[in-house]
């Protein structure tokens, strides 16, 4: 990397700063505290079966949140990921149940079709919001409806089912008690971490979130970087759809309702700033764990549904308040 | 803005034109107000009603659906539109058992035959508004009890069960939970836990996995719909448990193979495809001069098992 424009340089300095390490350490400590709490107060929490369950349960949210991290880092938001996931699932479901295909062909076709559906929606979100400089909040709200409507239309509102056995196997397979689907998500975190920290594209994602004008004046095609961020988010929704199908062996057009909110929550709890430019995908990983561990532990402890929902809400608000102090500290 | 007004005027014009078209044609017009067409249960019901229109051929069907389960705004608008168009009958599956009473009262006052199906309007709200209206629909509580009893008779006294509920506050969710609880009382089952998964497969999968961790000795699961039962079955498969019995509700096509190979013990069919069509038949009888409907006209339900 010979690129030494200002935003890039500033962001790179940030990467290795004590502060950024402390940020993630703070979230990690919060996660540890929650884990400790549940380990003491419930007997089943720290069992290998339950840990496997937690890993499986956070997989889809984690994948969606990885994509969401890119969009939030550029100062945008993507409200459509839950619906896009449903659309990708339905498209992949139609592909995998297409008559006259061998199991292998059907699975490969489904995976490609699902990812393509996600990518197309992501490109649309990116191009429309970046070209006219419109708030992505509104554009992706539109896409939320377009994708959900398309999913319902294509599937005729019917649940698609009965997939090849090998596909189902993949959804429940494990290596040393770790679900393969979780390893897929973890691999995506690593790839995203690499992209964000060690490529020009990644560093400029931070740069756009910090000071879009500076990146533009430095001669970078901001438009395409923004489209790139939304495309990655769409691709993640497509991959989440494939995982969803493999896990449950169905493709439902009403899947993923409000999943975008959980994904955004994971990113924000993970310390990424809603105004962009600051945060990390490692934080997102920890944020997804906090949400998943809470959801799991609060059931094990026997708390009722409504209390559970309230506590999740409180955690999100605490995370945003912490983010306020982080931002204040960072601006000094 | 001008363009918008023009479009609105054009739309009104078309509505008026089609209104006169009804009047010239002697066939009675039935306005069908459905719940969320995103739900395959209602989608199938709508298809059933459309086929019914073709098969009978002596009435005209105007159907309106909604975006989601709780969108009663657009149901109110649909009822108003039907009143304006002067339809002969309105057949409605209310999205909210209280909010829909007042707009339907307006329809009755306009001389339209109103039939309430699928979910019953709230008795209190009806009394308050001075509305008398029969209900045509299945006994959700009785149906859930049939499924619960199938489970209870297999497990016997003291069997440990959990319930997966539908959307909190939704009338059919409440009725089904009460039905399951009736079975729990009847067979003296041990109810370990009862939680919502909002009718959804993925959430049921997650929620039930965690319930299973907390209660590994559970023997039976009562799910308030089949989508959630599928999530439960997948959770049992990945936990490697084949000793736990599952019952659902709705008899959607996807559970057919699961009932056959024993992964599910039973589900309940309330013949959703025919439900709107049956309600339309009843409405047309009244339109043709038959006596007004009274009380609760129960529609058939049936327990579905492998036998």
UniProtKB/TrEMBL annotation, chain A:
Membrane topology: Multi-pass membrane protein
Stretches that traverse the bilayer: 21-42, 54-74, 81-100, 106-124, 131-154, 174-201, 222-244, 250-269, 281-301, 307-325
Any Pfam family: BPD_transp_2
Official protein name in the record: Ribose transport system permease protein
Keywords attached to this entry: Cell membrane, Membrane, Transmembrane, Transmembrane helix
GO cellular component: plasma membrane
GO MF entry, a single one: transmembrane transporter activity
Species of the source: Tropicimonas isoalkanivorans
InterPro entries in the record: ABC_transp_permease (IPR001851)
Record flagged with keyword Aminoacyl-tRNA synthetase: no
Subcellular location, principal: membrane
PANTHER family: ABC TRANSPORTER PERMEASE PROTEIN YPHD-RELATED-RELATED, RIBOSE IMPORT PERMEASE PROTEIN RBSC
Superkingdom as given in the UniProt entry: Bacteria
Locations listed in the record: Cell membrane
TrEMBL record, chain B:
Keyword DNA damage listed: no
A molecular function (GO) term: carbohydrate binding
Residue ranges annotated for the Periplasmic binding protein domain, each copy included: 30-289
Leader sequence segment: 1-23
Keywords on record: Signal
InterPro entries attached to this UniProt entry: Peripla_BP_I (IPR028082), SBP_2_dom (IPR025997)
Similarity-based family: Belongs to the bacterial solute-binding protein 2 family.
Family matches, as PANTHER family: D-ALLOSE-BINDING PERIPLASMIC PROTEIN-RELATED
Name this polypeptide is given: Monosaccharide ABC transporter substrate-binding protein, CUT2 family
Originating organism: Tropicimonas isoalkanivorans
């Amino acid at each position: 990397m010979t690129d030494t424009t200002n935003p890039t340089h500033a962001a790179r300095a940030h990467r290795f700063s004590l502060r950024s390490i402390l940020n993630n350490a703070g979230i990690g400590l919060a996660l540890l505290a929650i884990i400790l709490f549940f380990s003491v107060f419930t007997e089943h929490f720290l069992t290998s079966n339950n840990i496997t369950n937690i890993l499986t349960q956070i997989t889809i949210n984690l994948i969606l949140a990885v994509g969401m991290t890119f969009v939030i880092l550029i100062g945008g938001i993507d409200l459509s990921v839950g619906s896009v996931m449903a659309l990708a699932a339905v498209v992949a479901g139609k592909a995998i149940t297409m008559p006259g295909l061998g199991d292998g062909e059907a699975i490969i076709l489904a995976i490609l079709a699902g990812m393509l559906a996600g990518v197309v929606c992501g490109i649309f979100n990116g191009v429309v919001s970046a070209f006219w400089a419109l708030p992505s909040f509104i554009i992706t709200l539109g896409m939320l409806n377009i994708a959900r409507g398309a999913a319902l239309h294509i599937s005729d509102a019917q649940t698609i089912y009965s997939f090849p056995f090998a596909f189902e196997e993949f959804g429940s397979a494990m290596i040393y008690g770790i679900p393969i689907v979780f390893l897929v998500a973890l691999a995506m975190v690593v790839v995203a971490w690499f992209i964000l920290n060690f490529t020009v594209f990644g560093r400029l994602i931070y740069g756009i979130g910090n000071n879009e004008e500076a990146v533009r004046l430095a001669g970078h095609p901001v438009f395409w970087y923004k489209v790139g961020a939304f495309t990655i988010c769409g691709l993640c929704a497509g991959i989440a759809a494939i995982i969803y199908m493999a896990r449950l062996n169905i493709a439902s057009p009403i899947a993923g309702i409000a999943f975008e909110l959980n994904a955004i929550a994971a990113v924000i709890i993970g310390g990424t700033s809603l105004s962009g430019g600051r945060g990390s995908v490692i934080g997102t990983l920890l944020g997804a764990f906090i949400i998943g561990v809470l959801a799991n532990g609060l059931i094990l402890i026997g708390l009722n549904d409504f209390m559970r929902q309230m506590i999740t809400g409180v955690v999100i608000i605490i995370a945003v308040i912490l983010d306020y102090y982080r931002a204040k500290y960072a601006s000094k | 803005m001008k363009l918008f007004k023009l479009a609105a005027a054009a739309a009104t014009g078309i509505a008026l034109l089609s209104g006169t078209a009804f009047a010239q044609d002697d066939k009675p017009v039935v306005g069908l107000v459905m719940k969320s067409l995103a739900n395959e249960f209602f989608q199938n019901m709508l298809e059933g009603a459309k086929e019914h229109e073709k098969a009978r051929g002596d009435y005209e069907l105007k159907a309106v659906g909604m975006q989601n389960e709780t969108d009663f705004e657009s149901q109110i608008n649909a009822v108003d539109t039907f009143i304006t168009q002067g339809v002969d009958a309105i057949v409605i599956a209310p999205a909210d058992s209280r909010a829909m009473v007042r707009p339907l009262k307006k329809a009755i006052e306009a001389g339209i035959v109103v039939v309430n199906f699928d979910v019953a309007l709230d008795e209190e709200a009806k009394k308050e508004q001075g509305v008398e209206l029969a209900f045509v629909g299945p006994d959700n509580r009785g149906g859930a009890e049939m499924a619960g009893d199938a489970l209870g008779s297999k497990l016997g006294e003291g069997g440990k069960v959990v319930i997966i509920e539908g959307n909190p506050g939704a009338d059919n969710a409440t009725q089904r939970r009460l039905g399951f609880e009736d079975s729990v009382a009847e067979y003296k089952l041990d109810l370990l836990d009862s939680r919502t998964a909002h009718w959804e497969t993925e959430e049921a999968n997650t929620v039930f996995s965690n319930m299973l961790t907390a209660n590994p000795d559970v023997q039976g699961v009562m799910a308030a719909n089949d989508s959630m039962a599928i999530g439960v079955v997948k959770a049992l498969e990945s936990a490697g448990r084949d000793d736990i019995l599952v019952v659902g509700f709705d008899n959607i096509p996807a559970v057919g193979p699961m009932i056959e190979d024993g992964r599910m013990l039973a589900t309940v069919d309330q013949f959703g495809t025919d439900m709107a069509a049956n309600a339309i038949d009843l409405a047309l009888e009244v339109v043709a001069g038959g006596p007004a409907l009274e009380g609760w006209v129960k529609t058939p339900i049936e327990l579905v098992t492998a036998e």
